[in-house]
Amino acid sequence: MAVPMEDNFADVVNKAQRGLGMADRELAQRAGIPVEALHRVKGERYDAAALRKIAPLLGLNAEALASLPEYCPVPVQVAGLAAFTTAYGGAGVNSYLVLDAASGEAAAFDTGMDCGPMLEMVRAKNLKLREIFLTHTHGDHTADLARLQSETGARIYVSERESLRGAESFEAGRAFTCGRLRITTRSTWGHSRGGATYVIDGLERPVAVVGDALFAGSMGGGMFSYADALRTNREEIFTLPPETVLCPGHGPLTTVAWERAHNPFFAE
Length: 268
Ligand SMILES: [Fe+2]
What we know:
Blueprint: H1 9-20, H2 24-31, H3 35-42, H4 48-54, H5 62-66, E1 81-88, E2 91-100, E3 105-109, H6 116-124, E4 128-133, H7 139-142, H8 145-152, E5 155-159, E6 168-170, E7 175-178, E8 181-187, E9 196-201, E10 207-211, H9 226-236, E11 245-248, E12 254-255, H10 256-262
Parallel strand pairs: 3-4, 4-5, 5-6, 10-11
Antiparallel strand pairs: 1-2, 2-3, 7-8, 8-9, 9-10, 11-12
Helix pairs in contact: 2-3
The chain binds fe (ii) ion.
């Protein structure tokens, strides 16, 4: 079943505006639109002309923002990568498993609200799950951590910038192995204090588990620092090969190339 987009044009406008700390009146005035028109857009009433006017003031790509309602990445599949979506507050939260078929070794990325489906796959394929890597410690991503850990005995890893009891911390740049797969860590902080991206090499395509740093057509937002969320994404995600499959914490899988073309925060 296709995972729906996490955010729409109104979410993107709200996140950018909040990140920049710009008041409605100032934004509307500078864009040359009535404040009521801005309120309608922020209330999810589509208005292409208004979106094109406010986009540059929010540092967003105008065409990408205006065409966001038509954007949804083509479903992508990678052998050895499994995505799990569990219900969270009317939407979904994602967790991932990568596995090296030759050795049967596997690594988990976040737990979502319910690690049951992931555990089922681990048992069905008789996998050795040795590591649980956390993209960040927000509750929807770590809700079932105690159960996943106790059922598998896996070690838990988290960025040193965001410690968690029971987890070992790492510095960005540290590499791990999972069978013949190589997992390299990158710091994509800004949504959270210690957001981490995990780049996996050794599958049929490069894969990066990005957590809430980036969504298809949007981003988690700069809850900790908006400017650093934008900067670290540009430096650590958009420098990956264009064919890299991105695995976000919410919404569908995407690729670097698609986000470079369609994500209003990053489109060129
Ligand atoms: Fe988050």
